[in-house]
Amino acid sequence: MPQYTEKVIDHFMHPRNVGEIENPDGVSTITNPACGDTMMLQVKITGNVISEAKWRTLGCSVAIATSSIASEMMTGMKLEEAEKLSNKAIADALGGLPRVKMHCSVLAADALKDALKDFYTKHPDKKPYTVAK
Amino acid sequence: MADGKVIYMDHAATTALHPEVLEAMTPYFSQLYHNPSSIYGPAQLARKGLDEAREGVASVLSSRPAEVVFTSGGTESDNSALKGAAMALKQMGNHILISSIEHHAVLHTCHWLEKLGFETTLLSVDKYGLVNPDDVAKAITDKTVLVSVMYANNEIGTVEPISDISKAVRARAKVLNRSIIMHTDAVQAAGYLDLNVDKLGVDMLSLSSHKFYGPKGAGVLYIRRGTPFTAQEMGGTQERNRRAGTENMPGIVGTAAALKRAERSREANVKHVQALRDQMIAGIEDTISRVRLNGHPTKRLPNNVNFSFEMVEGESTLVNMDMLGVCASSGSACTTASAEPSHVLIAIGQAMDIARGALRLTLGEENTKEDVAYVLSVLPGVIERLRAMAPVK
């Protein structure tokens, strides 16, 4: 589909890190209010680094592609970096998205923030100086 | 497909111009470029082409040629029909009756008319998308000036009982001793259903040429003689003062050629696509679980297949099918950044989350049994792959 970049199609057709983690440290299931897409994200945290990320998404091709590439981007990220991972950075990593599909990239970014929030709620001692919004 | 062939199954969106139609249109781009309203000899050839096109369309509609108005397409025809009738009758009343599954060309025009003081009643439909003629009769008031119900729905293919609805409207109009105009949007019906305006009993009927292998940017509005109508285009006497503007001659000639051809081959084409449709519907129901056929099982366009798949988003199905060489469509929310799924699927009572998973395959004359077999060989895998990715519910 020419309206999407090759990267979007690649991640949609060959999604990375689909599934669940045994005993995840942070979990989130959120729904995009704009279109109803739903993403479940689970992260494993080792020290102050996201060591593993798995997800499941019910949504459009862009929601699936952003879930996939975001899971790659966050893996190996320090928590304070991960908190700042924006939907724009995710969209840029896919080589850009059509304007009307930008809202789909919010899902993965929000799921990550929400999963980290879940982690901090369970482990208040691990919370870094930068406070997650 | 493996050999790079693309299978087009979105004929409700548009069709390819037929070579025979192109041939009829070609002279009117250059040699016969003259303005049909001009007085000199060459212009009379253009005038002749215009008259013949009008007669050709009239012959398919079983109407008088003078009742045929050429427009820029289905959208203009619907807009003009509703606005033209409403404006002409605004002293008589301000109530318009339409079905809840009309095309946006009708729905949005009604919303605009509401700003001018008109009131619209949306008739509910049953789970198949059918309008009940009794409901139409009951909804008519002493302020009703216009009723508009589509002949066949563009998404789910349900064919409405137009002639029964027209009868119900006439009966009520007689009792109330008032003039009520009956319009039908027949954009999806052309080429598949009988367009005889007397049998349908309609005062106005809209057509769009590119839906029946004609050119884009061209269409027809049939206006029965004596129907109150206020022109929506001004600045010329063309189309008997009902649509000003120099005639789109290639489009008009192409419209007539395409419509005559569609009517001539209608019986054979209906038989052809209906067999493919039934093969597709049976195949999907046999191989994929948690599916729902949208629209009526039998009162549906012979070329329309529309399914909702639980636990998938329609846009994902479309993109994946595109990667496999199949062009299809959906009423998916996520294609337009809108939270609203198809108003048609909601009107037939479908839950939001299921309506999001709709897939529409609309067949055409060039599709084959092998095309359908190919789609049936890949679609179950696509749905399975997408469902496997979804969060477990």
Compute the number of strand runs of chain A.
Answer: 3
Tell me the β content of chain A.
Answer: 15-25%
Please tally the helical runs of chain B, counting DSSP H or I stretches of 4 or more residues: 14
Indicate the multimeric state: heterodimer
Give the distance, in angstroms, between the N- and C-terminal Cα atoms of chain B. Answer: 33 Å
Structural class of chain B: alpha/beta
- Whole-Å distance between the termini of chain A? 36 Å
Helical region count of chain A? Answer: 5
Q: How many strand elements of chain B? A: 12
Rounded to the nearest angstrom, the radius of gyration of chain B is 22 Å
Q: β content of chain B, as a range?
A: 5-15%
Specify which chain pair forms the largest interface: A-B, 29 and 25 residues
The helical percent of chain B reads 40-55%
Q: How would you portray this structure in words?
A:
The complex is a heterodimer of chains A (133) and B (393). Chain A is an alpha+beta fold and 133 residues long. Chain A is 38% helix and 19% strand. Chain A has helices at 6-13, 61-74, 79-82, 87-93, 105-122, and strands at 26-31, 38-46, 49-58. In chain A, helix 1 crosses helix 2 (61-74), helix 2 (61-74) crosses helix 5 and helix 4 packs across helix 5. The longest helix of chain A is centred in the last third of the chain and has 18 residues, at 105-122. The radius of gyration of chain A is 14 Å and the shape is globular. With 393 residues, chain B is of the alpha/beta class. Helices cover 41% and strands 13% of the residues of chain B. Chain B has helices at residues 19-25, 41-61, 74-88, 104-115, 133-139, 162-176, 197-200, 238-241, 249-264, 266-287, 314-323, 343-347, 352-355, 369-389; strands at residues 7-8, 68-71, 95-99, 119-123, 144-148, 181-185, 204-208, 219-223, 291-293, 304-309, 326-327, 358-362. In chain B, the strands form 3 sheets. A 7-stranded mixed sheet of chain B has the order 2-8-7-6-5-3-4, sandwiched between helices. The chains are: A alpha+beta (133), B alpha/beta (393). At the A-B interface, helix 1, strand 2, strand 3 and helix 2 of A face helix 11 of B.
